[in-house]
Specification:
Largest sheet: 6 strands, mixed
Structural class: alpha/beta
CATH superfamily of the largest domain: HUPs
Shape: elongated
Order of helices and strands: HEHEHEHEHHEEHHHEHHHEEE
Number of helices: 12
Radius of gyration: 23 Å
Strand content: 5-15%
Oligomer: single chain
Bound molecules: adenosine-5'-triphosphate
Number of strands: 10
CATH architecture of the largest domain: 3-Layer(aba) Sandwich
CATH class of the largest domain: Alpha Beta
CATH topology of the largest domain: Rossmann fold
Distance between the termini: 69 Å
């Protein structure tokens, strides 16, 4: 008898990603373990999604000649979090993953509690991956997480890039992989249950103080009730379609940007005016970043205001963007300067 369908599904999802990793990096090229088979790490919170992921990695990796390890991040936000991290380490070790480690991080405050924890977590995961020369780090985000991300993006009102949710591969060189993005959370839970894997439910996931938790426990159930069960799948599909559209528009903008600049690098208003708004705003965004605006602080409302220098010109003064970048219209030119 084969494995339970849920177990078969999580293994298949991981196998696909491992094949991909092996194609890109058949052996380890970094100094740590050079020439050895690639190392793939699972980022594990101890929750059901990432425990299912760890079990599937532990099963598939040796069959494909891949080394498999695990890492858990202790955010230090709750009393006893160090004990829990140690428990996760022993659960990952019991799955025969090696190396396995817990990393303690200090979570700052910038951008709110969720963003600060995420920032600290990814920095720690990057450091562990670098230290071990890992080819990939697997994350347990599911289709349900993707649907939540799309809904959060929709509510921000900042365009299709934020509707495109999480990528299957992201980070430096695409090192972060999300094998479960096409699987529902229920499948991961079920896979843990039938394999008798102990899982830990993060109280933050149910804490209504967190926006994502409210989306998960309040907003999505209401949407499902009103629109039907398929809404999660539809939101996840929206992510993929939006990502493709956003990628296409980004490359369009990258291709036309040089042609709207004059000899001194300023932007020509007439040429910008002729572009479709979606492309024009992307060109403006690229120009702002090139002038020194940090990408993460540049929002849709900033670009709309700059856009009005082109489409709603009534002699406005300079527009100030994050990173002390000022944009002014001078004659038929937009001039961006940091100062
Ligand atoms: N403390 C942590 N240590 C290591 N990896 C983590 C940690 N927290 C989250 N991750 C990784 O990020 C993914 C998404 O985490 P998040 O908390 O957003 O989702 P989740 O649905 O609660 O996942 P899980 O059920 O695995 O906890 C996890 O599946 C895991 O791969």
């Amino acid at each position: 008898m084969g494995p339970h369908p849920a177990v078969a599904a999580i293994r298949l999802a991981v196998r696909r990603v491992l094949h991909d990793v092996l194609t890109l990096a058949p052996t380890t090229s970094s100094p740590q373990g050079a020439g050895e088979p690639p190392l793939v790490l699972v980022a594990c919170s101890g929750g059901a999604d990432s425990m299912a992921l760890a079990s599937a990695l532990a099963f598939e990796a040796p069959r494909l000649g891949v080394r498999a390890g695990g890492v858990t991040v202790d955010h230090g936000l709750q009393p006893g979090s160090d004990l829990r991290a140690a428990e996760v380490v022993s659960r990952l070790t019991a799955l025969d993953l090696d190396p396995v480690e817990a990393v303690r991080v200090d979570v700052g405050r910038e951008g709110g509690p969720e963003a600060a924890a995420r920032e600290a977590r990814y920095a720690a995961l990057d450091a562990v991956a670098d230290r071990h020369g890992a080819a990939a780090i697997l994350l347990g985000h599911t289709r349900d997480d993707q649907a939540e991300t799309v809904l959060l993006g929709l509510a921000r009102g900042s365009g299709i890039r934020s509707l495109s949710g999480m990528a299957t591969a992201s980070g430096a060189g695409g090192r972060y992989r999300r094998p479960f993005l096409g699987l529902d959370r229920q499948t991961a839970r079920k896979a843990c249950m039938v394999q008798s894997l102990p899982v830990w439910d993060d109280p933050h996931n149910a804490d209504p103080a967190y926006t994502r938790s409210r989306v998960r426990h309040e907003a999505l159930p209401v949407l499902e009730k009103a629109l039907g069960k398929g809404v999660v799948e539809a939101l996840a599909r929206t992510a993929q379609l939006s990502r493709d559209d956003a990628d296409a528009l980004d490359s369009w903008a990258a291709a036309v940007e040089p042609s709207v600049r004059d000899d001194s690098g300023d932007l020509e208003v007439a040429k910008l005016y002729a572009l479709p708004p979606a492309v024009r705003r992307r060109v403006l965004r690229r120009a702002a970043i090139a002038a020194g605006s940090p990408a993460g602080s540049l929002f849709a409302r900033h670009l709309e205001e700059v856009d009005r220098l082109i489409t709603g010109w009534r002699g406005q003064g300079a527009i100030n963007l994050p990173g002390r970048v000022a944009v002014r219209r001078q004659g038929g030119r937009l001039v961006l300067r940091q100062g």
